[in-house]
Amino acid sequence: MRTNPSAAFGAALLAATLAACSSDEPPAEPLRTVRTAELRYNGAAESNRYVGTVQARHEVDHAFRVGGKVTERRVEVGDAVRAGDVLAVLDDLDYRLAEDASRQQLVAAQAQAKQAESDNLRLQALKLDGSVSDADAERADSEARRSKAAAEAEARRLELARNRLAYTVLRASRNGVVSGVRLEVGQVVAEGQPVVTIAGGGEPEIVVDVPEDHLAAFKSARFSASLASAPEKVFDVVLRELSPQAAALTRTYRARLRPASPRQLPLGATATLVSSRDASGSSPVAPIPASAITQSNGQPAVWVVKRKGAEPVGSVQLVRIDVKGYRNDEILVAGLPAGELVVTAGVQKMAPGLQVALAGTALVADTKVPVQ
Fold this sequence. Notes:
Layout: H1 5-23, E1 32-34, E2 36-38, E3 47-56, E4 59-63, E5 68-73, E6 80-81, E7 86-90, H2 93-128, H3 134-166, E8 169-171, E9 176-181, E10 188-189, E11 194-199, E12 204-211, H4 215-219, E13 222-227, E14 230-242, E15 252-259, E16 270-276, E17 286-289, E18 294-296, E19 299-307, E20 313-320, E21 322-327, E22 330-334, E23 341-343, E24 355-358
Parallel strand pairs: 1-24
Antiparallel strand pairs: 2-23, 3-12, 3-16, 4-11, 5-7, 5-10, 6-9, 7-8, 9-11, 12-15, 13-14, 13-16, 14-15, 17-22, 18-19, 19-20, 19-23, 20-24, 21-22
Helix pairs in contact: 2-3
């Protein structure tokens, strides 16, 4: 039987093509890259952060001791003042008129008292020779004493009128910085209404609000703080005052802390306070980002990366954990060995046994080393 040369050539060509196709393997799919955090047990459960402000230990509200219309305001918020400096002035016309009226009444009372004393002296002299009765002499003596007392009362009224005139000028009672101004020229203020607040700049404090569930630990903690303007400069602070009663709206307790050593802090600055206490006797916990937490049958769990030796690849496994507490954007956990790698991002896309690569590497399934 003769073989067709063209058919043989076609069969050979087909065989060569199939052989070439069978030698080309599909490209390996890249592994999913995940971000991880290593579990470290360092007593983080005994540490909390609070954000507060720098305030003066002593702040004094200043008010006029009389009411009236404001004619001058001489300070602005942030101005440094010294004791005796004028802060504001009221219209004093009515008080000047009252002082003048009191002065005139005093003159009249003094004149009357002088006349009554002269009459008393004359009657006492006439009494010696029997020209006047004892009753007339006693009435003259009584009138002299009454007139004298009335003159002294008018003198006190004049002094009060002068004081009220002086109260139309509001002066600083201490050295410090103006931290609040609540009046304007033309405004009518009432007697005793706070209008200017002066903060003493010599004793700055950090003021924070402590949640009720942190109160017990806060009382026995050690404290350090830093300012938002200089977060790298951490300094120790000491608890000076903790409110015994929670605020009605926030249900938090106001705490005031002073620097352990003399330090100038800008009033109104934002401060971060860190409280920590000895973790001896307590079970160790590890902080992990809140984004790492997921659920397994309604219980908290995390995805743990099981590495293949020292290679930056592995598979993920869902593991239940014990949540011990919360701290800002972190969760304090226990129940896993130290050094485990926990997935911190994209946990909703994980599946048991999924092959992954650690962040910072670009690997494919059959690759043994990171691709540069």
